[in-house]
Automatic annotation (TrEMBL):
Superkingdom classification of source: Bacteria
Organism: Commensalibacter melissae
Gene name tied to this protein: argC
Protein name: N-acetyl-gamma-glutamyl-phosphate reductase
GO cellular component terms given for this protein: cytoplasm
CDD domains: AGPR_2_C
PANTHER family named in the record: N-ACETYL-GAMMA-GLUTAMYL-PHOSPHATE REDUCTASE, CHLOROPLASTIC-RELATED, N-ACETYL-GAMMA-GLUTAMYL-PHOSPHATE REDUCTASE, CHLOROPLASTIC-RELATED-RELATED
GO annotation, biological process: L-arginine biosynthetic process
Keyword Cytoplasm on entry: yes
Length: 303
């Protein structure tokens, strides 16, 4: 009998880490753990990393950078790494863990030693924009606006505490109003955009779920509403985790896909076909984080 792959989740007691741990329970892998009281102990974590085939990092950016630098200095066998943070998503030495990006991306992930899991908002934005820009329908210099709302679990343990423990948590708030959100470089990079979109993220008083929505004026595109739909339908044909849906919805609840690992894409248009809103619905902790990580782990071990 062949041995099961060994995996250590650094940050396993955080929001994304816990989500991955729960999903791994169904897979043929051996999960190696550091006790909760030692979760910040770098020596114990490095010892564990030296003993496993894959280290999944579910840490803040700085802690991820530190852990990766230490792994790279290891003289013993190094584990492969899957990083959930923003730190390496546009780094050319890392493979971007968005399996549906292009044909061939799954193969790259399967062979990679270092995989960067995509950001939650970025996953929705890239799923919509990448195929449309690549097909030339959305010009690379289109003045895009990306609106998005996330459940509060998107901000990890700290934001969950604000929403679940403080009496005066807002029902809804805009944030990142300095127009410098950490997902913008990733979105521009993987959509080949030359004009940075205006990104308007927000958070609502619900735990999980996300909508990314992108309004478009059809007269500024190189294509029709029908061509937008056909392009997305063909790009995601027979994909399990991302589906293009044509159901004519005119309302879209933000928690529609909460507790799933799927993403749904839609093209909403008016009856003049001159305005469009593209939407991506997902769970920030599902396809936006832990669900995508599991997709990558399965690819990396051929499960
Ligand atoms: N939440 C989400 O929807 C998404 C999150 N991500 C990314 O995943 C990563 C983790 O986020 P999330 O799970 O939300 O965050 P959480 O704050 O919920 O969890 C982070 C975990 O890492 C631990 N930790 C923090 N600093 C260190 C350190 N220096 N050494 C060891 N452990 C440390 C924390 O410990 P302690 O228990 O002491 O706080 C906590 O257990 C982030 O990079 C985030 O950007 C990606 C996609 C979506
Ligand atoms: C609601 C909320 O705060 N969301 C986070 C994004 C989620 C996150 O931190 O992780 P990823 O970058 O890996 O997606 C934010 O805007 O910073």
């Amino acid at each position: 009998m062949t041995e099961m792959p060994k995996i250590f989740i650094d940050g396993e007691y955080g929001t994304t880490g816990l989500g991955i741990r729960q999903r791994l329970a169904d897979l043929p892998i051996e999960l190696c753990s550091v006790p909760i009281e030692h979760r910040h102990d770098i020596d114990k974590r490095l010892q564990m990393m030296a003993a496993v085939d894959l280290a999944v990092l579910c840490l803040p950016d700085e802690a991820s950078r530190e852990a990766v630098a230490l792994v790279e200095m290891m003289e013993s066998k190094r584990p492969r790494i899957l990083d959930a943070s923003t730190a390496f998503r546009t780094d050319p030495e890392w493979v971007y863990g968005f399996a549906e990006l292009d044909p061939g991306q799954e193969r790259k992930i399967a062979k990679a030693d270092k995989v960067a899991n995509p950001g939650c908002y970025s996953s929705g934005a890239i799923a919509l924009l990448h195929p449309l820009v690549k097909a030339g329908i959305i010009p690379v210099d289109y003045p895009l606006t990306i609106n998005a709302v996330s459940g509060y679990s998107g901000g990890g343990k700290k934001l969950i505490a604000v929403y679940e423990q403080e009496k005066n948590a807002p029902p809804f708030e805009l944030y990142a109003l300095d127009l410098n959100h950490k997902h913008l470089p990733e979105i521009c990079h993987y959509c080949d955009l030359v004009q940075e979109p205006v990104f308007v993220p927000s958070v609502g008083n619900f735990a999980q779920g996300m909508i990314v929505s992108i309004p478009l004026h059809v007269n500024l595109l190189n294509g029709t509403v029908k061509q937008l739909k056909t392009c997305l339908k063909e790009h995601y044909f027979q994909r399990k985790n991302i589906v293009f849906v044509e159901d004519g919805l005119t309302r879209l609840p933000a928690n529609q896909l909460a507790f799933t690992d799927r993403m749904e894409l839609r093209v909403h248009s008016n009856n003049r076909n001159d305005q469009v809103i593209l939407t991506a619905s997902l769970d920030n902790l599902g396809k936006g984080a832990s669900g995508a990580a599991i997709q990558n782990i399965k690819l990396m071990f051929g499960i």
